[in-house]
Every structure is written in C-alpha cells, then in structure tokens.
Amino acid sequence: MTSQARDPAELGPRPEAEVPAESCDYQPENPVEQFLRTDRMPHIWCPGCGIGTTVNSFARALLEAKLDLDRVAVVSGIGCTGRVAGYVRLDSFHTTHGRAIPFATGLKLANPNLTVVVYSGDGDLFAIGGNHIIHAARRNLDLKVICVNNFVYGMTGGQLAPTTPVGALTTTTPYGCYEPAFNLPALMDAAGAVYVARWTSFHVRQLTRAMVDIFRKKGFCFIEVLTPCPSLFQRKNRMGEGLDAMKYYKEKSKVRHGAPTSEVGLTIDGDIIVGKFVDRERPEFLDLLRSQLAAQLGDRYVEVEHLVCS
Amino acid sequence: MPKGYVAINVERCKGCGFCVEFCPTHVLAMSSAFNSKGYHPPHVVNPEKCTGCDLCGMYCPDFAIYGWKAPESKNGAKSDAAR
Fold this sequence. Notes:
The complex is a heterodimer. Chain A is α/β, with parallel strands linked by helices. Chain A has helices at 51-65, 84-87, 100-110, 122-128, 130-139, 184-191, 204-216, 230-236, 242-252, 285-297; strands at 72-76, 91-94, 115-121, 143-149, 152-153, 159-160, 195-200, 221-226, 253-255, 272-279.
C-alpha cells in the first residue's frame, strides 16, 4: 500500500482495506475501485477538494446506467479536474488546454457508438475552450459535459477565472474581483444544450442521478458541479476548509428544478440555485448530418457505422 | 447486530472530515492517530449504528472509505428483523 507502482502499463495490486474487528466475513470491494487506476492513487487533489467526490458520483452513475465500459471514453482538458482522465480506468484522453471539446468532437464523429464524456474544469472549458463549448452546444453534438467549477484556476496557483464571483480575492485580483462572472447554465442554455443542471459536491445522490440522466439522453448535456477549493479559493477568501465549503453548500443551496437559467447566477455569499434547469429535445448533430447527406446524395451515402470498426 | 459495515483505507485518507460530518447516523469520528502521510483518518466509534448506506463512500474524495449492507442470507432472521 505504501509503495505505489508507477508504471502505467502494469496496474498494481488492489490495496487491502482495513476492516473493523466487528465486521462480518462478507466484504465487497469499494464500488468505485473498479473505475480507478489504483496504481496512481493517492491522487494529487488537495485535502478537502471536491473533485474526488464528483468522481464517486460518476462511478456510481456508470454502474447504475449499466453502460458498456468499453464504449465509454473520458476526455479531459488541463487543470485539477483534467486529472480525472488519468485516474479513471476507462478509455480516456488528457488533451491540451481548452481543447477537450474538439478532441471529444472528433472522437464522437469518428466512432458514434461511443459515449463520450468531457470531464473538465471551468477555466479549461469556458475560458480557453469557451469558443469550442458554445459551438458544440449549438450543433447539439452528443457529448456529456461535466464541468467542475471551483471558481479559480487551481493548478496554476489560484488566478482569476471566468467564473470567479465579483468581490472574490484571487492571486491576480488582490483587491477583489471586479469582472462580472459567467453564468454557466445561462450560457449553455442560450447556446442550445438540451440538458443543463447544476449541483454541488454536497449533492452526491442528486449528482449521480443527473449523470445517469445525461448518459441516457441524446444530445449536448451539461452539468455544472460546484466544488470546494480549500487551498486557493477558500484560503484567499478566508472561507475555511473544504468541509466548511460543504457545509456552506448544504446551508445555501436551494433546489429549483426548471428555474429560468437567467436567474441562477452565483454571487460570493448569496444563495446557490441548484437543480435541473433545462431538459428539452432538439435534433442531434449526427442525425442532421445523416439526413442531410442521405437526402442530397441518395444511394451514394453510406452510413458512418458501416465504416467504423467497433 | 449492525445493519452495515464500513471499511477504511487509512493510507489513502487525507483527513478532510467529509465522512465524519455527513454520516447520517454518526458512526465515525476523527481519530488522533496519524497515517504515514501525517493525516488523521476517521475511525469507527459507533459500529452498531451503521446502516451500510455508503454515504461516506459517496462523499470521500480520496476513495478511502466505503460502506456496505450486511448480507441477508448469512443472518437472515436478524437482518430481516432489523429492516
């Protein structure tokens, strides 16, 4: 358990868990363990960081949705959340900064049988990758986007992100942030996503259900997950540890399903509106592509699946 | 007879305290012991209260704890009565 094999080709032995003396003979494995590259544990996330909690929900949602794991691909960008691609024992890809959506787009178009999950952070998806995500939503490409929002750029030292609320202190706004922040659900709603939800890392069961929903829904689905960043955001703003942030989410979260996304913006100390805001139907990109080409080319059009070796 | 059990992988724990705070039946408490990285892992203080709901496992960001329900077949009568 103490010496971790680092060779990615060789998945190390499962670590043995300590069992209380009173325990019975029957002991199942940790349900999340089969989705982890255990040789890479312990992970680099700080004590009190909520990204690992979202991975728990993701693993349980994969179990519940009963997806064929050989047909699930996880694509991440750069950042703390980008590490998820390296820690899940699925086909995964850790892309360049901001380019998770373009790589995922190529992956989905080349092999439409895959369930492509984009698991990345707010800075990666909405700052450097902002243009990509709005166009993927506009096309309604069948991607499942899980955006972990911790309000700052964590990995690079806590700089201002497009989601940093007004008034927050970061390393690049020592006198307080004065830029208006993105309201991510409103942005995704306007761009054309068919499923938009927001939860926090406190709402583990609801987040799991939302992830099951998006695995079953066709089209561009988006979940924003608020997570604590104890080392940078909370410390700079004197908001305490990760646990204090979780208690804050518990206290301040108001569940409002179907709330107009224009009303769900976040402030530094206001209520956090959570819930499923958008769930609608729009024609999906690949369906549009097929019907258009079939109409124009007739017999000369060959279905994409026939060309893909699965 | 408890309805469930928890297992703790102390070496993975980073002592965030999520499991202790959010356990619905207050089975866990932070221990004063250290793991090899110097964090205080949780320990089980009220094993008889555990329902095996696995909420600790859902919250744990370090995949270091999980719970499971006691099997029905092995002690069928007691488990049924507990339910």
